[in-house]
Amino acid sequence: MTRTSSEIEIVRDQPCMTRPYTRFIAAALLLTMGTRAESAPETVRIEGTTVTFDLVPTPGGEIELDGQTTTIAPLMVGITEVTWELYDIFLYGLDIPEEDKTIDGITRPSKPYVPPDRGYGHAGYPAMGMTRHAAMEFCRWLSQKTGATYRLPTKAEWIHLASAGGGETGGAWHEDNADYTTHPVAKQAPNAFGLHDMLGNVAEWISPQEGERPQDNATAMGGSFLDMPARCTPTAEQTRDASWNISDPQIPKSMWWLADCDFVGFRIVREVPSQQKGDE
């Protein structure tokens, strides 16, 4: 499988690959009282199901990206990549009563032709093989279901989260240890922000960058189980190309699935209000 990736400088002797790219602002940990009250680990249950997902608060900071300093706000972040248990609700309409269920392929994904997990594993495994459009529509659906706004992280946010402010970047499933398959989430050590699998396992979609249209070729960060350890870093990126969906027989090709991409998933973030109403 041919995949493209931007070239980055790798220094193997440095346990943290992010110092040339990221400057962590310790003062960002000194959040307002309102933000601290909001920023506690949180478990969210999807209404009408028993499925839950976990978020952890992460501090803000600054990173140097493309020659510019970008300020990152505190975020609530999915502790793991979105798993099949959570994605299945969106995919199969498991939150909709049977008498009301219509999967139109417009507001929710079309039914996949093959098992979407490709036989790697389902329960506890990261959802993968969806387009960035599908990941963004999942975030839209989740926002409607919960009343909170979820989205994909920006590139700058993703690098900051994966770099963990210059701290420990956590373990990774990669070419040398993954045995050519994805693995259940949260089996590797988390990074210093408490986030599992930021590197490796499946690469993660980021939101469209400035000047980029949603339909343009999308970017996924962090490397996957198919990549060498040197390509599973906070700044490693891959850009979708034709090889990721070459065997899709549809014309036009699916806007929901990538038939030849078993190595990309996504993680969700939620913005943290700067101040609680009680503190106004």
Write structural notes for this entry.
This protein is 14% helix and 16% strand. By secondary structure, the chain is an alpha+beta fold. A five-stranded mixed beta sheet has the order 1-11-10-9-12, covered by helices on one side. The chain has a five-stranded antiparallel beta sheet with strand order 3-4-7-13-8. The protein has helices spanning 33-38, 84-92, 132-146, 155-163, and strands at residues 4-5, 22-23, 42-45, 52-58, 61-65, 68-72, 75-78, 150-151, 203-205, 219-221, 237-239, 264-265, 269-271. The chain starts with a strand and ends in a 9-residue tail after the last strand. The radius of gyration is 18 Å and the shape is globular. The protein contains four helices and 13 strands. It has a single domain, classed as paralog of FGE (formylglycine-generating enzyme), CATH 3.90.1580.10. Mean pLDDT is 83; it is low at 1-38 and 275-280.
